Amino acid sequence: EVQLVESGGGLVQPGGSLKLSCAASGFTFEDYGMSWVRHVPGKGLEWVSHIEYNGGTTYYATSMKGRFTISRDNAKGTLYLQMNSLKPEDTAVYYCNFWRRPLTFWGQGTQVTVSS
Question: What are the backbone dihedrals phi and psi of residue 88, each rounded to the nearest 5 degrees, phi first?
Fold first, then answer.
């Protein structure tokens, strides 16, 4: 059974940092590109970042570029998102996911709240 379990969310002040983790199991993690997506209250789903299966190539949404860093440890089966210089508009539930035809698999999400 495929499982994705996010952790590391919480309350942080503007300008602060958080590192999210996504522990994967039930599939061959190193064979798949992985993404972070967030659900912003009142705005819907927003793609954040993607990393290729071997970690060699990464992609970011424009508003996250330079502030967020996606990475992975294939030996540990874990995906990460380092978030720096956080802004109130980064408040959202953050999900990791991957696509294995014909389905997209999602974790349960972790809440990030940026507020003073």
Answer: -55, -35
Distance CA 20, CA 10 (A): 10
* Cα–Cα nearest to 47, from 87, 81, 88: 81
Partner residues linked to 39 by β-bridges: 45, 93
Distance CA 4, CA 41 (A): 22
Q: For residue 90, with 0-12 CB atoms within 10 Å meaning exposed, 13-18 middle and 19 or more buried, which class applies?
A: buried
pLDDT in tens, 50-103: 999 998 899 999 999 999 999 999 999 999 999 999 999 999 999 999 999 889
3-state secondary structure (DSSP) of residue 34:
strand
Integer CA distances (angstroms), 39 to 30, 76, 99, 113, in order? 26, 26, 18, 12
State residue 18 phi and psi, 5-degree precision. -145, 150
CA distance 23 to 12: 22
